[in-house]
Amino acid sequence: MLRKHPERSETELNFISLFWPNLPSGIQAAYENIERDEVLLFKEDKYWVIRGYDIVRGYPKPIYRLGFPKTVKRVNAAYNDETTGKTYFFVADRYWRYDENKKSMDHGYPRKIIHDFGKIGRVDAAFQKDAVSNSLPVHPEKDNEEDTKLVEDYLSKFYTIETDSNQRGWKANAEFTAEKLQKMQRFFGLKVTGKPDTETLEMMKKPRCGVPDVGLYGVTLPGWKKTNLTYRIVNYTPDMSKEDVDKAIQKAFKVWSTVTPLIFTRIQEGIADIMIAFGTKGFNLFLVAAHEVGHALGLSHSNDQRALMFPNYAYISPSEFPLSPDDISGIQSIYGSATKTPGKRPAVPTSPNTCDPQISFDAVTTLRREVIFLKGRHLWRVYPDNSEVELELISAFWPSLPSGIQAAYENMKDQILFFKGNNFWVVSGYKVLLGYPKNINMLGFPKGVKKIDAAVCNKNTGKTDFFVGDKYWRIILLLPWIKAVEVRPYC
């Protein structure tokens, strides 16, 4: 989702799951009830009510609870008229009007959109600004043409459909296309209809790998006949530092070498076994690199959505690494399991015992609705709606961060500041901001301060307290600089 703040020029791009982990992707309609300070989100025949960063208990609920007939399976668009307290729901070529105070649909609805909204026949987005309602019309003919082209291109690229040069492929070769659509739907676990229905089109529109879906472990290559392979990074992306790219690529190879006898060595020039170059699309480098290395080693796509080799790109929690059982089964069917020869591989560091009553942590911080505990090279994630605690590697989230973080806190801009020694890093989401680490003197600390023991931001006052030895500093965010303004004895 994109967030636009009225007082900022930049637009923020975030995953929906970072704000509301229990929400699905592909939300189809949404509106804000300003009076109740709630946002309602719709997908298919269900809706969610959100207050702040919390989904209201008891949701999702079916949309017929709002007064829709059960034949209505989705809402195309919605907006709340703050001047009247009425909410308008657009469904195909009709609309309903809902009374937020009475919590019921008004009598006389649905009505034809075209009768009350000028020449607009259908609506796929609507909003209100300064008491003026705005709606964006649907162009069915254009949509149908675009969907037809999407199906043709997708099946041609990933399922080897042969199109008629004189007509649109999936119309001219209906039976052949239906067979390919069924194969694609079966692969992704969709309802097998052989038709380009809404669910199928949504799957086709998701970002994905460019390699065809040739089947489970029907290897793209026969596999390498040797276990010592070289790789070379031919060019770099301007979006990341070279150091971060190198670490992400190295980690991507390690994903596979951990479970096989394969050994990967980087070379700086010449022709390597695996040559790496960067395109322009911005997805998580580590995940994409690890996926593409899987192809280079001989794996095709998996239809297991938990697998790294699933064709569609989506963020996979680092708790899924090392690889899913499906990935491991595939790669070991080609190369066998990892060798046990002593001295050939470094020992894997052991994870902390989370049941140890004497365990202590190096730092604690929040990340929106999560609480994160850090110790050594590990972190624990605690969610408010989940009783389970996830143990991860810090490097799986932020490869450029060091282990042994000594202090951390979340600021008013949903950023986390991490401290180690006399350096600090600023993280936004899963990205370390450019130009970091910086020296803590930049925050206003005297040069005699060599490390921060702990830090906490009071979001009610906008002030942050830093604890150093038996003293603490209180700083106030004075954009664009941060300045230390007080020193007091630590009590």
TrEMBL record:
This is Peptidase metallopeptidase domain-containing protein. A motif (Cysteine switch) lies at residues 207-214. SUPFAM superfamilies: Hemopexin-like domain (SSF50923), Metalloproteases ('zincins'), catalytic domain (SSF55486), PGBD-like (SSF47090). The modification Phosphotyrosine is found at residue 436. Ca(2+) 2 binds at residue 273. Zn(2+) binds at residues 209, 291, 295, 301, 309. Ca(2+) 5 binds at residues 408, 455. Ca(2+) 4 binds at residue 362. SMART domains: HX, ZnMc. Ca(2+) 1 binds at residue 239. PANTHER family: MATRIX METALLOPROTEINASE, MATRIX METALLOPROTEINASE-27. It comes from the Eukaryota. GO terms for cellular component: extracellular matrix. Residues 220-337 form the Peptidase metallopeptidase domain. One of its GO terms (molecular function) is zinc ion binding. Keywords: Calcium, Disulfide bond, Hydrolase, Metal-binding, Metalloprotease, Protease, Repeat, Signal, Zinc, Zymogen. Its cofactor is Zn(2+); Ca(2+). One of its GO terms (biological process) is extracellular matrix organization. Hemopexin repeats lie at residues 24-70, 72-120, 352-401, 402-447, 449-491. Binds 2 Zn(2+) ions per subunit. The active site is at residue 292. Belongs to the peptidase M10A family. The keyword Calcium applies. Pfam families: Hemopexin, Peptidase_M10, PG_binding_1. It comes from Bambusicola thoracicus.
